[in-house]
Amino acid sequence: MDTNIRICMFGGFNLYINNDCKNTCILKSKKGMSLLQYLILKYDTVVPNYRLIELLWPNEESSNPENALKTLVSRFRALLNQCHEGLGSCIEASRGGYRFVLLPGMSVDVFEFEEICHKLHNVHELTPENRALYQRAITLHSGDLLSTAEQDEWVVSASVGIHGKYMKLVYEYLDFLKETEEYNDIIQTCRFALETDAFDERLHLELMNALVKTNRNNEALMQYKHVTNLHFRYLGVKPPEGIQQFYKQIIQAGSSLEMNLDSMRAELQEYGDVHGAFECEYAVFREIYNLQMRNLERFGTNMYLAMIMVSSMDGEPIDPLRLDDIMKGLAEILKERLRKGDTFTHFSPSQFALLLPTVTDETSHMVIERIKRFFYQRYPNSNVMFSYRVGPLNPSNPAPVEGENAATRKKKGSAAKAPAHTVK
């Protein structure tokens, strides 16, 4: 039986001999591992001794660096030979340096990936052969290059380059699949690729669009909420505008479905027992705002807009994970303590926007002060500052006031500002 030797560099570094992982043996030498990985990425090139010395012993002085390199190579070859007889010969000395040699029965996932990229260069149609190559390349790339290795400059540089090639292949394949409306394959491809690049805007948009096209609107909505949470939690920002705008497409996707009055009434009554304020995505909040502005002009009524912001007392950014937990807690308070007719949205990572109908200048501040009180009760010693601004939607009414009640504003004048409200 021929020996099968596989070296896998996507998603980490693994050495397999006939499907038996040999990492335990070679991990005894971290410098030896770095040497092997670097030589593999420089395949077909003799790397000079001085370059390997700079790579393996940066900022270190040695009386005999050439001898230290020879000793390292010798010892690491011995470790490789323990994994499989003759495996150490994959590191070959040549003309004042070393190079990696592909032995019989040996394969390297990076080499296969590069070969597929070459074959798919300037492809203009999705033949069965090309489809198989795209699928092989996408599944082969199971994670970023050497993702578990120390992030030295040469690792990062090589990883970024290969990642760019991978995303190019994914985009090309998606374009072919869209031409033939193969939406289930698009869904599968996007979900696999998102395991590598969880924040790629186009992948999320393509996935949500394919879900909508296959009438899986609930899944599309779940995907939207997932990517929104990713950006808030880990980047501290709202998702890109393109993803925000797609929300309206998701909620409008079912508008063409035939539905009689009874089924529509049953669908609406599912939400009849909901208590508290209505939380929605910003795209919907903006539509509600525009609708309310029309009603204000038509009926001569008024509505107030409030902004609530959470920040740290020392002015330093709050850790994204902690901020996410605080904002979730504040959202629960808003749902519980506001009325059914009130609407709010997560406007930014640290802010909520609220629409308060049928309130006055004074009662609008009473509402937010009550929310503030419950917030303080929930986070009594968190070094968090709760601040807000509230004012009427009708611009002809008094200007918005920050964090104070109406009586105080009348005494101080509309330009007065209250000191920041802090948790003590």
List keywords for this structure.
424 residues, Serine Threonine Protein Phosphatase 5, Tetratricopeptide repeat, alpha+beta, single chain, Arc Repressor Mutant, subunit A, four-stranded mixed sheet, 3 domains, Alpha-Beta Plaits
The secondary-structure element order is EEEHHEHHEEEHHHHHHHHEHEHEEHEEHE
- What is the chains' assembly state? single chain
The CATH architecture of the largest domain comes to: 2-Layer Sandwich
Mean pLDDT over the full residue set: 83
Number of DSSP E strands: 14
What is the rounded Rg? 30 Å
Low-confidence stretches: 256-261, 404-424
Question: Percentage of helical residues?
Answer: 40-55%
Q: Mind telling me the CATH superfamily name of the largest domain?
A: Reverse transcriptase/Diguanylate cyclase domain
Class of the largest domain, according to the CATH hierarchy?
A: Alpha Beta
What does this structure look like?
- With 424 residues, the protein is α+β, with helices and mostly antiparallel strands.
- It folds into 3 domains: 5-108, Arc Repressor Mutant, subunit A (Orthogonal Bundle), CATH 1.10.10; 115-151 and 160-255, Serine Threonine Protein Phosphatase 5, Tetratricopeptide repeat, CATH 1.25.40; 278-422, Alpha-Beta Plaits, CATH 3.30.70.270.
- The chain is 52% helix and 14% strand.
- It is built from 16 helices and 14 strands.
- Strands 8, 9, 10, 11, 12, 13 and 14 form a 7-stranded mixed β-sheet that branches. A 4-stranded mixed β-sheet has the order 3-2-1-7. Strands 4-6-5 form a 3-stranded antiparallel β-sheet.
- β10 and β11 form a beta hairpin.
- α10 runs antiparallel to α11.
- The longest helix is centred in the middle third of the chain and has 27 residues, at 153-179.
